[in-house]
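Notebook, p. 212. Picked up where the previous page left off. The plan for this session was modest: take the two constructs that came back from the sequencing core last week, fold each one, and keep the raw output in the notebook itself so nobody has to go hunting through shared drives later. Recording the first one now, exactly as returned: residue sequence, then the structure token string.
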Amino acid sequence: MGLLRNTAARHLWRRLALLLIAGGLLGAAAPVSEYQLKAVFLFNFAQFVEWPPAALPLENAPFVIGVLGKDPFGAELDEVVRGETVNRHPLAVVRYHSVAEVRDCQILFIAASELPQLEGILTTLKGRSILTVTDAESPAVRGVMIALVRQDNRIRLRIDLQATKTSNLTISSKLLRPAEIVASGS
């Protein structure tokens, strides 16, 4: 399984590199959008986070990346995961209007439109091994496991390790190295 994970990880990072190169070569005619990059990040999180066995999909079920609220990705996320797998599970994107709809989901992107309900969303998800991710930049973003923040025209990771540990998720050191580690509630 380690070989599969390393091969898949190399494939994923290669895809990101190609996306960046393509955007650079094509220049202003076809720049890589912010949400293309964020979609690749979501896709890569599936390779660099470990879920407890009970939180993973059953044998033939898909590994789900969910989007809660107003979807900022459009078709970008669907394009990134099309035809890809995680530990032999096909990847699927599911869009949710409310947290009550979230069932078998491994990664949940919480859109900025959901910030007013964030505390209730996190309370509802408490005890479930769902990696929560957002790109909403606000002091109200507390308890979300990974924040994708814009800094100096780059996307940086801000990771709340306590929140991941509380949900029994383990983040690879390869993902932690470039990230800013924050304490829960900060």
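Okay, moving on. Second construct, recorded in the same format:
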Amino acid sequence: MTILEEIVAYKRKETEERKRLYPLDLLKKSIYYHSPSVSLKHYLLREDKVGIIAEFKRKSPSKGLINEQAEVEKTSIGYMQGGASALSVLTDNRFFGGSSKDLETARKFNYCPVLRKDFIIDTYQIYEAKSIGADAILLIAGILSKEEIHQFTALAHDLGMEVLLEFYDETELDRYDSNTDLVGINNRNLKNFEVNFDHAIQMASKLPSAAVKVAESGIQKPEDILLLRKSGFSGFLIGELFMRELYPEAACRKFIHEVEILSKNHS
């Protein structure tokens, strides 16, 4: 069993348990459930931003513990003050050390779009995402059928949220759904967690030119952002690069400042 298969198997059991603990009627009573969402797509295309989606992530299956000390409130506010276009929050606990409370905290203290990063395999998780304040959800093509992607996207839209549909392998591209708002290319193979940075550029050329593309994983330096922009990317999801620092928010601010300087020099 690959790491991804292990995660999905656990997620199915966990979701069934959460359904019993927190039924839909309870989720719908959340203060966020009927609140308007903020458009992730719009923020990534803003000309006054560089398109960074700054991620809060405590640990990962590939790297183990990344940052145990970071606080969601301080880090997320710092990300936004540093110029990030949006926030991504891991809500999986077993494998990534996150929680729904982490996203609720990020939502409470920030006005920007917040992406729920998790392994969504059930409609319940989409209702749950809305109830904790998410503006967008991640759907991973590698663990869903084309029919599920279409169904989950429609439900997210009905609830006022956007969808980032993530691909890794070319064999998954037949599951592309033009109704999704953004398309992500994960440079990290979710089966063995190896990173291949050139992968995003190759995959981008096989997607519709009109799709708003997001590069995920493997970004290490400002020059990578300029290279990816030239290949048609508008968003850049960065987590580990910031989170492995003692002060992730400071690392984010410095990185974005360097991107802005580099962009001016190349304009």
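Notes on construct two before I forget. The beta strands are 52-56, 59-60, 64-65, 86-90, 114-117, 136-140, 162-167, 182-186, 213-216, 233-238.
Flagging for discussion at group meeting.
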